[in-house]
Each structure stands twice: as C-alpha cells, then as structure tokens.
Amino acid sequence: MLRLMRLWRLVRADAGLLWFALRHPLRPMWLWPATVLLACYALDPFNVIVPLLGIIDDVILFPLLLHLLVRMIPDPIRAGYGMSRVLA
Fold first, then answer.
1. CA gap 58, 41 in Å, rounded
2. Which residue in 15, 4, 6 sits closest to 66, CA to CA?
3. Residue 20 has pLDDT above 70, yes or no
4. To the nearest whole number, what is the mean pLDDT of the chain?
5. Spatial distance between the Cα atoms of 11 and 48, rounded to a whole number of angstroms
C-alpha cells in the first residue's frame, strides 16, 4: 500500500509539472502532441477488452510513460515550476 501511495504522489507531481509546462510560453513544440498521445494511450480500448491487462497497463506503464515525458521537459521550464510552487 505504501508503494502505491508513493506512485500516486509521483504521478500527481508529474501531472502538475506537465500541466504547468503545457501552459508555459517557452514549451517545446512536441509537448502538446506527446501529451495527446499519452492521453489516448491511457484511454485505449484495450482496457475495456481485457480488464486485467488494462489495470496492469494503467498502474505500471502509464506512470512510467508520464514520468519519461516529464523528464524530457527542458530544465528552465522545470525550474519555473519549482519557483511557482514556492511562490504560491
């Protein structure tokens, strides 16, 4: 249960950073299409056809892909996210 809570915190932090980066004026051009593809991957019909594999997919692969996408965001945008959280 503790590992799931850590995973949830990581996903929540990554999602917040991704949302900040999508609204940032200096975001890379590839960020919106990559985010849309990730959202389509999360909503794919494979989750409905084979529920057990869909759950494993959502619990393991989606957070890893989200984290990979966030790691590809340029450092100045990530630094701006850290500063915006301190100021808020």
1. 9
2. 15
3. yes
4. 85
5. 22
